[in-house]
Amino acid sequence: MTSAHLSSVPDTAPDLVVFDLDQTITTNDTYVYFLLSVLRKRPLRLVYCIPLPFAVAMHKMGLRNNTWLKRVFLRAICGGCEREFVEQLSDEVAGRVISKKLRPGAIPVLERHKKRGDRIAIATASIDIYALAIAEKLGIDKVDVLCTQAQWNGSKLTGDLASQNLYGSNKTHAVQNWAESAGRSDIDVAYSDHHSDFSLLESARHGVAVNPNDRLMKLASEADLEVVDWNVIG
């Protein structure tokens, strides 16, 4: 596993670059972090969390998918939350993520792509209500943030999703559409830590596995993808 500054990005500056967010740029799952932040502000909502361990068990047994689980958690913890509260908390969460929860090697790579003039997208299954705030603080234009959208009913969150969960093939398709909107048929560089993004990494001209989980490490080795460690710089 190579360190951040040794990542072999092609000599010719790529045009389109895609970063996953959770555990690629960040050290943690930002969805879980946001939900825990809501509970710290509104601990009475813990009563709605009593069934959640059963939901997790159903997901692990393969009885429910990732999208269902995401909806269950969002509804239990955030359903009915007011827009003003959500936006303020999202900004606070984004600030803490930027100051405390970024992989040390991520920002130098991101800044290098910016310096080359590359167009950079963040593609994440995370929810727009905080993912957009994090991306803004990273200097990414909101039109280049591909993420799962939360549903609103007027000024309150319903706890449901207003879009597809941008996970796995849904993310790959969203990135393909983004590339096409830029007049391209593919992307040049993609970074991710998770096996669910393997098809995205393979479809890029240069796919990079960042601190990969065990399954992606195996897939990356078989496909001869570059593997980097962004927990260190140099």
Helices and strands in order, then pairings?
Blueprint (H helix, E strand, L loop, with lengths): L1 E2 L12 E4 L10 H12 L10 H9 L5 H13 L4 H18 L5 H11 L2 E9 H10 L7 E4 L1 E4 L2 E6 L7 H13 L7 E4 L5 H6 L2 E5 L3 H10 L2 E4 L5
Parallel strand pairs: 1-9, 2-3, 2-7, 3-4, 7-8, 8-9
Antiparallel strand pairs: 5-6
Helix pairs in contact: 1-4, 2-3, 4-6
Major β-sheet strand ordering: 1-9-8-7-2-3-4
Largest sheet: 7 strands, parallel
Indicate the multimeric state: single chain
Low-confidence stretches: none
Describe this structure in words.
With 234 residues, the protein is an alpha/beta fold. Helix content is 44%, strand content 18%. Strands 1-9-8-7-2-3-4 form a seven-stranded parallel β-sheet. Strands 5-6 form a two-stranded antiparallel ribbon. It is globular and about 45 Å long. The longest helix has 18 residues. It contains nine helices and nine strands. The relative contact order is 0.20.
Short description:
This protein has 234 residues and is an alpha/beta fold.
Features:
seven-stranded parallel beta sheet; 9 helices; 18% strand; globular
